[in-house]
């Protein structure tokens, strides 16, 4: 479907975890809208069912705001993209349902997008890097990926919990409160900035992979003993955990010889982590970029843009194959546009 | 010669011998106290493990000098070819033979309570006499725990998948055979079961929790 100007558009829906977001992108990568509505649990972590309920409640409003912001109408759309996985089942299904409904109603193609691929693609679009080693760190993901022979390959990942999850749980155990516009990671970062003493915590790099659950247990145990200042614990937790992901990243940079390093995901906002990864890039004569906040967290624009790339390469998802894929690994996805 | 993530390697002459100087230089990105902890720990533990590995029947470079103050190790230079390169150059049967030999060596390490910690094909060198040398024990440890053995072999599998994805499955099957040659079928099966458990613990594994 083309409008009068001949411009074509893709609408992307993101709902893998606590964010429900709708983005609209033109076929040449101009992001017209990126509306994000985050579910903030009253206490504890994300309950998938509660988050999904939030998503279904705000979906209509978020869609409306995205259309308002972009200035286009639903009939101008050429394709609908949605995050097909990986993520939390109930949340994914809510987004998928919205996507299927729109695609059927407008009678346009549907494209299921891999959430991790989308993070990398929007990072490349917004920073201008072409072929980076990507460190993707968020509440649900911790991985180092780079392109090789048709796919993004995982060169290192967590063997258990994600980096953002590790920081969040520690913050909750410490009784810290999440404020509006200041997620747990930012609260920990602020406290860590006034920490001085490095407390010894387990540093667990297993070859290309890393493990964070032991580190979290050790930090929480020390917290309960009340022998150390909270600032020092936050500082030590950050220094140790970040050094682990940094080592795995440096390893991938050394191994692949790529000359670009991209940092993305919710934890990418952390200044200390940024400085570490920047230092590694410099050490290996590589260019360092961090994805701008709005596009580093979970967002609909990344899904819209990746939908465009896939659609242009003839990849569409028939409704009957649009079931969500909770554990869809990055390596399983062909990315023909990288050739 | 090589700038790694964990240490830098230099080819040097040491009293007329061709040697590798492995230097763990300070990492600017790391907090200084943590940086020092990591570098000295690895500099002291790596040679210990190399020595133990040799006793277990796994070829490792001969050690000449360990300087923990400078986080430097001087060791024998192994003239040969990285298995990483070899695997894509040789025939299928030769590849299977090499992988089986590697599996046997890993079995010997584990039988002696040693964990390599970074089993990738770039850390294995085939010398012209047919011996495969294992290098880079910096992330290794001494333990006979099933969990540690599982993680160690899981790493080998992951390394094959990311660098040799065309024939990773076949290669790992040969590694597993060699491993069973040394540890016995029963013990090897326990470790392979453990690998599946470790994989399921990871993120985005289809069979995890049997869901979907």
Q: Main β-sheet of chain B, in a few words?
A: 5 strands, antiparallel
Terminal CA distance of chain B reads 48 Å
Record the strand order, biggest sheet of chain B. 1-2-3-5-4
Q: How big a fraction of the residues of chain B is strand?
A: 15-25%
CATH fold field value of the largest domain in chain B: Transferase(Phosphotransferase), domain 1
Q: What percentage of residues of chain A falls in helices of 4 or more residues?
A: 40-55%
Distance between the termini of chain A: 27 Å
| CATH H-level superfamily of the largest domain in chain B | Transferase(Phosphotransferase) domain 1
Low-confidence stretches of chain A: none
Silhouette of chain B: globular
Count of helical segments of chain B? 6
Q: Which series of helices and strands of chain B comes N to C? A: EEEHEEEHHEEEEHHH
* Number of helices, where a helix is a run of at least 4 consecutive DSSP H or I residues of chain A: 10
State the order of secondary-structure elements of chain A, H for helix, E for strand: EEEHEHEHEEEHHEEHHEHEHH
Global mean pLDDT of chain B: 91
Q: How would you portray this structure in words?
A:
The complex is a heterodimer of chains A (339) and B (212). Chain A is an alpha/beta fold and 339 residues long. The two termini of chain A are 27 Å apart. The longest helix of chain A is centred in the C-terminal third of the chain and has 27 residues, at 230-256. In chain A, helix 3 crosses helix 10 (300-312) and helix 7 packs parallel to helix 8 (271-283). The radius of gyration of chain A is 20 Å and the shape is globular. The mean pLDDT of chain A is 94. In chain A, strands 3-2-1-4-5 form a 5-stranded mixed sheet, with helices on both faces. In chain A, strands 8-7-6-11-12 form a 5-stranded mixed sheet, sandwiched between helices. Chain A is built from 10 helices and 12 strands. Chain A has 2 domains: 9-118 and 298-338, Nucleotidyltransferase, domain 5; 121-295, Nucleotidyltransferase, domain 5 (2-Layer Sandwich). Chain B is α+β, with helices and mostly antiparallel strands. Chain B has 2 domains: 2-76, Phosphorylase Kinase, domain 1; 80-208, Orthogonal Bundle (Transferase(Phosphotransferase), domain 1), CATH 1.10.510.10. Chain B contains 6 helices and 10 strands. Chain B has helices at 32-55, 83-89, 92-111, 146-163, 168-183, 185-201; strands spanning 2-3, 8-14, 17-23, 63-67, 72-76, 80-82, 114-115, 124-127, 132-134, 141-142. In chain B, the strands form 3 sheets. A 5-stranded antiparallel sheet of chain B has the order 1-2-3-5-4, with helices on one face. In chain B, helix 3 packs across helix 5 (168-183) and helix 5 packs across helix 6 (185-201). Chain B is globular. Chain B starts with a strand and ends in an 11-residue tail after the last helix.
């Amino acid at each position: 479907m083309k409008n009068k100007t001949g411009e074509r558009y893709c609408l992307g829906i993101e709902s893998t975890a606590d964010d429900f977001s709708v983005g609209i992108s033109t076929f040449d990568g101009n992001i017209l809208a990126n509306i994000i509505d985050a579910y903030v649990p009253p206490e504890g972590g994300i309950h998938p069912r509660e988050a999904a309920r939030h998503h279904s409640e705000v979906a209509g409003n978020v869609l409306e705001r995205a259309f308002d912001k972009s200035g286009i109408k639903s009939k101008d759309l050429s394709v609908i993209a949605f995050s097909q996985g990986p993520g939390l089942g109930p949340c994914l299904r809510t987004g998928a349902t919205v996507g299927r409904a729109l695609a059927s109603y407008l009678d346009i193609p549907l494209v299921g997008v891999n959430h991790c691929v989308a993070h990398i693609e929007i990072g490349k679009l917004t920073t201008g890097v072409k072929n980076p080693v990507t460190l993707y760190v968020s509440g649900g993901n911790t991985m180092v990926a780079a392109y090789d022979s048709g796919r993004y390959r995982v060169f290192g990942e967590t063997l258990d919990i994600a980096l953002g999850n590790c920081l969040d749980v520690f913050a909750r155990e410490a009784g810290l409160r999440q404020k509006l516009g200041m997620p747990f990671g930012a609260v920990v970062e602020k406290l860590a900035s006034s920490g001085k003493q490095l407390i010894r915590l387990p540093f667990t790099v297993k070859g290309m992979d890393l493990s964070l659950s032991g580190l979290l247990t050790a930090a929480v145990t020390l917290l309960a003993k009340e022998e150390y200042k909270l600032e020092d614990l936050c500082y030590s937790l950050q220094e140790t955990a970040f050094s682990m992901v940094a080592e795995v990243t440096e390893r991938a940079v050394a191994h692949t010889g790529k000359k670009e390093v991209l940092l993305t995901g919710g934890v990418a906002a952390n200044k200390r982590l940024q400085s570490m990864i920047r230092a590694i890039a410099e050490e290996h004569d590589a260019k360092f970029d961090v994805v701008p906040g709005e596009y580093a967290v979970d967002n609909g624009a990344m899904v819209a843009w990746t939908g465009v790339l896939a659609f242009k390469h003839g990849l569409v998802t028939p409704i009957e194959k649009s079931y969500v894929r909770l554990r869809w690994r990055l390596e399983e996805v062909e990315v023909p546009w990288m050739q | 010669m090589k700038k790694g993530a964990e240490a830098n390697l230099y080819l040097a002459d040491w009293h007329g011998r061709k040697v590798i100087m492995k230097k763990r230089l300070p990492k600017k990105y790391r907090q200084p106290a943590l940086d020092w902890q990591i570098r000295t720990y690895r500099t002291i533990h790596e040679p210990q493990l190399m020595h133990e590995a040799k006793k277990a029947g796994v070829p490792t470079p001969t050690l000449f000098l360990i300087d923990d103050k400078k986080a430097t190790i001087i060791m024998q230079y192994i003239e040969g070819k990285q298995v990483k390169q070899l695997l894509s150059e040789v025939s299928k049967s030769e590849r299977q033979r090499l992988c089986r030999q590697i599996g046997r060596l890993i079995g010997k390490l584990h039988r002696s309570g040693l964990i390599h910690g970074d089993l990738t094909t770039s850390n294995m060198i085939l010398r012209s006499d047919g011996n495969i040398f294992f290098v880079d024990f910096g992330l290794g440890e001494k333990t006979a725990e099933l969990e540690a053995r599982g993680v160690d072999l899981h790493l080998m599998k992951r390394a094959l998948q990311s660098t040799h994805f065309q024939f990773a499955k076949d290669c790992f099957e040969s590694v597993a055979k060699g491993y069973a040659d040394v540890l016995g079928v029963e013990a090897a099966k326990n470790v392979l079961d453990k690998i599946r458990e470790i994989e399921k613990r990871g993120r985005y594994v289809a069979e995890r929790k049997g869901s979907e």
